[in-house]
Amino acid sequence: MLNFSLKNSYHPLLTSLFGFTALLPTTYAQNIDFIDATFAIGYNGDMGNSQGKLNVTRHQNTYDATFSAEHALLDITQKAHFSMKQCAVTPNSYSNDARPAIKSNVKENIRFNWAQKQANYTKNGTENKQFTLAKTTLYDPLSFFFEARCDLMAGKKRFTYPLIYKGNERQHTYAVVGQATVKTGLGDVEALIVERVRDNKSRQTRFYVAPSLDYMLVKIEHRESALAKATATLTAMNYKVSP
């Protein structure tokens, strides 16, 4: 739209920053014209000076989303290019360039060929996998979040999406579990809490989206263990949506 051990500290959180960026409580979802948002990134309660930048631009029915962040534990840049019409998302390409402080760099790419019903995944120029698109839509780790906005808009409380994640086909399920007041750079806002459903109860990922800000993402919390917790909180945002 992420594992928080020190080996791979910020990958889950930074990927998820794209999630739920424009969820509208109307009959039809409004189009995102652009988003320019900044998040403060904290680890184990220490906010430090690390920031994440989220940019989304629209070109008629196609979208480009980019997230980049620099932190002592990880520098990361993720990009997704996809089309979306009437809430139906069709991913075209995805890239992830992660540079951890204590582990080898990771370069991932996914290319979707809908004419041939195949998706191609590569990692670090050596690993190469093919996925069939004939039976179902497969998403990349960013694009499916934009379809999730329509499910929330429709009032769904639980939803599942198939995606290509870390070189494997997986199912990610999310559920609305409550509401909370979130302190942001734009002031206090009321937000829905959307949690990823996991078998491992010690791990937890929560997304906070604000109806008063057109259901934009305002905070993420991820707990990998009792000793590894990360947050991303909105500090500034400029955006536009249109019919």
Automatic annotation (TrEMBL):
InterPro entries linked to this entry: DUF3108
Protein name: DUF3108 domain-containing protein
Source species: Pelistega suis
